[in-house]
Specification:
single chain; alpha/beta; Cobalt-precorrin-4 Transmethylase, domain 1; Rossmann fold; 3 domains; four-stranded parallel β-sheet; 12 strands; 17% strand; flat
């Protein structure tokens, strides 16, 4: 079977830096033990399992402030998704050693929200409810920020604010986000727009859509909890009009997907380890050129 290796794919610099930082902390004998990661350092179980081998405890849950109460002492690591101001203040007040692995793109968004809130803006944050990145970003100024998930949410808004701004999560579909921003602009022409979708996310989505056009289907390697991986599946289906499936590894590939297919594209979320993606590529390349349909 012919495999199109969609590029760019896989790790972004924010993920690489976060993982490197946690390894350095775990290998440093001077680090106060135990070491806890407040959430999952990135949304990929293979990465989390690797950190387990370093003796790092990953605390999984939606509310970072509540998770922090499970840290009795030692060192706490903030994940690449960032945390709210309340989490930072509470960790410092408890005397924990803090290691900040927040992605620089997320930190820039936090700084932007701080500035806008300080200047008296009402802020609409486009993001995914329940994801840790919006929790942290909105927590920079919780009384000034409202969550918007879809363009339909814009229709239900009733705002009387002269200074209005929109800020976005870094890992959204750029097409969905553009539609939501346009809906907000129609209702509030004065709104100031700050599209914070990171460059790595945009480039991976654009490459997936472009290359999918020559493929019969696309396999996205990534964790089911990874927003950027799920968005890759979404944009291929919606923008390229090709079937796309999310897999955690080779074991998730359904042979039925490959029946009658000649060309398969492979990409990966920005938190997916490269060896997992290479294994998927090798598996697909070992298939015959065309998988026959099963006989009744």
């Amino acid at each position: 079977m012919q495999v199109v290796r969609i590029t760019p794919r896989g790790y972004c610099y924010g993920v690489v830096d976060a993982m490197k930082l946690v390894r350095q902390v775990a290998e440093n004998p001077a680090t106060r033990r135990p070491i806890f990661v407040l959430g999952l350092i990135v949304h990929n179980r293979h990465v989390v399992e690797e950190l387990d081998r370093y003796g790092v405890v990953s605390l999984d849950g939606e509310n970072r402030l509540e998770l922090l109460e499970q840290v009795p002492e030692g060192t706490v690591v903030f994940t690449a998704h960032g945390v709210s101001r309340a989490v930072r203040d509470r960790a410092a007040a408890r005397g924990l050693d803090i290691v900040d692995a927040t992605c620089p793109d997320v930190t820039r968004t936090h700084d932007l929200i701080d500035r806008l809130a300080g200047e008296g803006y009402t802020i609409l944050y486009i993001g995914r409810r329940g994801h840790p990145e919006p929790e942290g970003a909105m927590g920079q100024a919780p009384d000034k920020v409202r969550l918007i998930e879809t363009a339909a949410d814009a229709d239900g808004l009733e705002l009387d604010a002269e200074k209005l701004a929109v800020v976005t999560q870094t890992t959204l579909s750029r097409w969905d986000t553009a539609a939501t921003i346009e809906a907000l602009r129609r209702r509030y022409p004065q709104i100031e727009v700050y599209n914070e979708i990171c460059l790595a996310t945009q480039l991976r989505q654009e490459a997936a859509v472009r290359d999918a056009e020559q493929c019969d289907l696309v396999i996205v390697v990534g964790d089911v909890r990874s927003n950027n991986s799920n968005r890759l599946v979404q944009v291929v289906r919606e923008q390229a009009q090709r079937p796309a499936y999310l897999v955690d590894g080779v074991g998730d590939i359904d042979p039925a997907w490959l029946v009658g297919k000649h060309i398969v594209g492979v990409t990966a979320g920005s938190s997916t380890p490269s060896p997992i993606t290479r294994e998927v590529i090798r598996f697909l390349e070992s298939y015959p050129e065309t998988v026959p349909a099963p006989q009744p």
